[in-house]
């Protein structure tokens, strides 16, 4: 039969499952007849071994997946099934996932045959949701070409890169094609160079696609302007200098030196700068590092002067003992070292440090010696504010320069430039000309320092339609404001600081311009990328001490000056109460903890400002009226603008240290050409 064979020895050869009768026959001989006997043999099917559906598969990110089962012993075909009717599996093991994310069990079965039972095995397939391509960003390759980069999206079959001269914001992704060119890319591609852009500017957006647009997710939008005058250099963030910490003291070490820095690509400009390296290798640096310290920290800052000339280093806004303050009496001669040692005794604030050498402050700051000092305290630690330095807490040292034909900085103000203050026509932020800054679509904090020699900056943000974007000012010179103040402009005279928070939530793909409304100059482009959550600015930021002006000592300071007689440079002179600065004269003696009310009167037709070392004050009147004091001027100040032919009245108290005539404190106009030409006085605290 077809079921089994049997040979003459009785050995059965099973061919397939079934029942067979085996007949044994003994042939007869001379004495016996032939005899037969039978038995029934049942042959069962065997189990198949070695059949595998394959390993479990996780993280599948495309719309179909093939996994072929292997092994088994029968001649039967392999078939597949899924435990979900949303998923189809064909006879080749190809799973059509479609748009579904989740887990499905795929069962593979090899059919049985005449000899074997069927066999099944399964594997688990986990399919990810379609993600959005994120962090779309670009690098300018040339004025009309751009290199896009993005982070991969999970679950996409492909990407579509769209670009158009109009924004995609109000267009459904299905309709992007109406206004766009697009390029289809495989999912392992995360960069694309697009060239020959002939329009004025382009929006770019990337769509991750599954099942040929059956589902899709889009990236943030970015905008690239082909206009050559635009913002080509990424904003630099001054490094935060790491202190060495020993015996509960934070020690910073800085070497002040000459170097070369490229404001313009490929052109070295001679600058002054400081960093923590003792050698003279200028790694294209300008300015000085950010120093970060906390209330109650014991701090030691060691300055090595390798400049080739004497300088000083003053902690502007810092409450310091007079002999640690770095004023004109604390000269650091070339190749010598000076150390400022103090305990931080003030509220969280954005301060700065810069030279303060008599007659040379303007030149030394102008050539690059300026850096931030950020003070933290328990309040700032606890407040829910953006505080990732350089990411959502951005220092902005705003200055301006005048480059000669060789792109060098020549500081030789004419008599008129001394009178008006030395103002450059090229604005820089953190030493970058026309920078761009990429931020997430969230709240971003900017610590703005007007680090210029002489310019007023009236900062505002505008969108591409020239519409103001409001922001909240959260801090003035030396502390948080008690409550945030919503503004569209913040006016800072030299040395003033403002911390602002701008809410870019919902602004993905948009660009904004930080503009100076004093000159109309566009200072920086802000490119808003993908969304990130951030909480609203707290309604209460701090509590400020209110000095009572009752029983206060009152003083008057009159700011004046003249162009001087005759011609030539440098003959403009400035005075406070009729006297030009004299290092050896003590102009004012204050009493520790005695509240004073100072009235600063500007009797000139040009603007001045007024700065007091080692303390803060609170402005109570402007132009003779309390109602002229803006809400954002009501916090702790150490520098205040004094408008032409006007006055400012403030309450001030020296609360930290006494000093003597060997190391007087300074008050002065912070227009550095005015300061360097006489508008400075000395005071001691007894
Ligand atoms: Cu001045």
Automatic annotation (TrEMBL):
SUPFAM superfamilies: Cupredoxins (SSF49503), Fibronectin type III (SSF49265)
SMART domains reported in the protein's UniProt record: FN3
Pfam family, one: Cu-oxidase_3
Domain of life, per lineage: Bacteria
Protein name as it appears in the record: Fibronectin type-III domain-containing protein
Domain Fibronectin type-III intervals: 132-229
CDD domains in alphabetical order: CuRO_2_CueO_FtsP, CuRO_3_CueO_FtsP, FN3
Species lineage: Bacteria, Pseudomonadati, Pseudomonadota, Gammaproteobacteria, sulfur-oxidizing symbionts
GO MF, one annotated term: oxidoreductase activity
Keywords: Metal-binding, Oxidoreductase
